Amino acid sequence: VLKEGRWVAIDVDIMGRRCSLVNIYAPNTDSPEFFYNLHAVIQSMGNTDIIIGGDFNQVRHNTLDRSGNMGRSRNIQKSQIAIDTISEELGLVDVWRLMHPQEREYTFFSQSPYIIF
Fold first, then answer.
1. pLDDT score of 42 more than 50
2. How far apart are CA 29 and CA 69, in angstroms?
3. Residue 9 · residue 45 · CB < 8 Å
4. Are the CB atoms for 106 and 68 separated by under 8 Å?
5. Which domain of life does the protein's organism represent (predicted)?
6. Domains along the chain?
């Protein structure tokens, strides 16, 4: 299933268990509707075993996942709330955060609070 090049999902059999593998490339704007639409698709697949990876273009925790004052001054975006809600409803876990609960590491860093194209 492919939607605007933003996600792909497949069902696979892993050692006798049916599992949904989902890869996403989320918009780099605050787009909660993207995550809610994805949630509906994942639910329609009917699996309880779900692995989601990709680029969420979003942080989960402002104070841990943003550097310096950015973490304290940034309001929580609607996409963050959508991700938290969906994660809770589907029983998803951020594996990296589970293994490193207080670590501050970044896959992207910019001095500017804005992304300039």
1. yes
2. 20
3. yes
4. no
5. Eukaryota
6. 7-99 (3.60.10.10)
